[in-house]
Structure formats: C-alpha cells, structure tokens
Amino acid sequence: MTEAAANAIDAKAARVDVELKTHFDDKAISFHNDGPPMSEEQFSDYHVIARSSKSRGTGIGFAGIGAKVYLAAWDRTAMRTETSDGNAALGSEMYVKNGKLKATYTDSAMRKRGTLYRVSLKPDDYAYLEKNAHGLISDAFDPAISGKLAVTLNGRRIKPWNPRRGLKKSFTVTAQGEKFRVLLSVTEDDMEAKKLHVQYHVSGKVISTKRPDWIPEVKPEYARRIHAYVDAVANSQHLNLNKTGFKAGTSRAVGLMFKEVDRRVYDVLKNEGYVDGDPMRKFERTSLTRFFERLFKDPKYAFLNPNARGGRGPGSGPGAGGAGGGGPG
Question: What confidence score (pLDDT) does residue 276 get?
C-alpha cells in the first residue's frame, strides 16, 4: 500500500484515492492517482519486474517494483492496471504462475486521467488493512499530506496531523553545503511514541525517525511533546534500495545531516526555555535509575556510585580501583 502511494508521489500526482472493496469472495484494494499516465513504452516496461524509467537516486518508490510487490506474497492474487490520458487507455492483468510473472493485456474503458491499480488480497491482509490502512498512510505520508497531496480512503479525505502546539518554528539547517528545512513543534499534549522526536522525510514520505541524545535534558513535562519534520530530499541519493531508510554505513553526508539538525533543534529548544540545563537530566530517570539514585544516597552504598569520590565499603582505600578508592574509577 505504501509503495503505491510512494509511486504516485514519484509520478507528481496531486491526488491518490484508495479503496478497500469486497465483491463476493474477492477482497481487493485499489489506488488511483491523477499523475501523468504511462506511455505505451512505459506500460510495456512496467510488466517487467525491476525495470524502471526512474533515474538512480530519485524517487521514493521501490523502483521498478512498486505496487507489484504483492504478487510475490500470494500465488492466488491478481493485479489489474489501467492508465489513461482522459481519452485513450491501456489495461493489463498480472499474476504469478509457476514462479514467473505473467501479464495479459486487456481492454480498458477508463477515461479518468491517471493510473489505477487494483490488487486482490488475502482475507487476513484485507482485514488488517481495514483496521490499519488509515494509520499506515497517515504515519508514512503525513509530510506530503500536510503539503499538497490529497489522499482519500474509501471516499474520506485523510487529514494532516495538526496537534495543538505551544511552539511551531520553521528554519533551515545547512550541512556540507546542502540545505534541510526543519519544522519543529512542541505540542501542548503528550504524543504517541511513534510521533516523538525527529523524522526525516523525502518528497513527503517518512524515511527515518531519530531520537536525539539530548532528549533527557528536556524539561520532564515536555519530554513527550518534541517533534520535528526534516526535509531530507538533498540526501535522497543515500536511500536504501527499497526506500525505507538510509543505507547502512551510509555516507558522511547523512551523518553530518543528523548531527547538525540535532544541534540546531537543541539550540532552538534551549533558547525557547524547553531545556532545563540540569546535568543530572543527562541520565534519563526511568524507574530503575530512580531506584539507583535512592540507593546511592544511602551512606552504606555510596561506594557503588560511579560518580563518588569517597565513601566506605569494598573497593575503598588507597590504590583501589573502585569509585571510592582514589584510583581510576
């Protein structure tokens, strides 16, 4: 589903309509995008797995495969595709037989400009998407939906994430000569975990979510209210093959982007008063760390404190290597 939406964005579509429909025993999902239709040559290439007209390093769809990935998931599925310029149309049906992709060209009466994909689903997969499709689209493509992309699910438009904000700030970060636009928010209410921290997107699709090291220094009441969207299109050439993250062991450029964005976001939060500056906040106070804090305050166990410079107990004394002994601890 996310591949179909990503490829619609790659096609410069302004609208994607997603529908889940059951017709007797056939349960299917369909996608229509209003981007430019495929030419006859592109339509022919489309039926060859992993052949694509995309340039290397561009686009956020799984180049050459896209919506066809489901054909490998279920040997009873079929995928109907229609593409039209508003006058003439091309159509086909694809399926897998004996481990090989098969395609049959069909007539199409579609006169709605764009491209339509319809895929038959396993009953369990259909049930899963009935429950989760809205969240999957919203989570993966909210930056695009907040911009110019209209997405509907069964006729209802998916709205962009728009929480109540105590702070909303936009600024540009420069790393290695490339510019990355950042939209920083501090919400008035705590967020779900999946929305926390810094999310990098390319062309409106979320690629990576990072938890900055300085989060423990944020004032406790705001620790679950920090979010930033970063437009990372300048580093799109470093996406992995299936466009779901940056390449492992990726280039210095991506690492510097992460580092510089973290630094600038921290500076803005500090200037706005959301960071308390308490050095103890560098250690996140979970229930376990709070237990150890109480334990270390008991004189009987002070020698256990790795930051202690005195105290009594095992390991203390001249030359000892423990925290209470004066040796290297």
Answer: 85
CATH number for the domain that contains residue 61: 3.30.565.10
Do 146 and 8 share a structural domain?
A: yes
Residue 276: inside a domain: no
Backbone angles phi, psi at 154, to 5 degrees: 50, 45
Look at residues 150, 190, 209 and name the one whose alpha carbon lies nearest to residue 16: 150
Q: Which of 45-59, 99-113, 167-181 has the lowest mean pLDDT?
A: 45-59
Cα-Cα end-to-end distance for the chain: 54
Q: Is residue 282 part of a domain?
A: no
d(CA 21, CA 121): 10
Asked whether residue 91 falls in the same domain as residue 216, the answer is: no
* CB of 21 closer than 8 Å to CB of 28: yes
Do residues 66 and 4 make contact, with C-beta atoms less than 8 angstroms apart? yes
pLDDT at 51 over 70: no
| DSSP symbol at 44 | H
Determine the structural domain holding residue 35 and report its residue range.
2-157
For 281-306, letters b (16+ CB in 10 Å) and e give: beeeeeeeeeeeeeebeeeeebbbbe
70 and 22 within one domain? yes
- The number of domains in the chain is 2
Per-residue model confidence as pLDDT tens digits over 272-307: 999 986 655 555 556 677 777 777 777 777 777 665
Length of the chain equals: 329
For Cα atoms 145, 151, 154, give the angle at the middle one, nearest 5 degrees: 145
Q: Tell me the CA distances in angstroms from 68 to 11, 54, 65, 288, one per residue in order.
A: 16, 16, 5, 47
Residue 68 shares a structural domain with residue 178:
no
pTM: 0.77
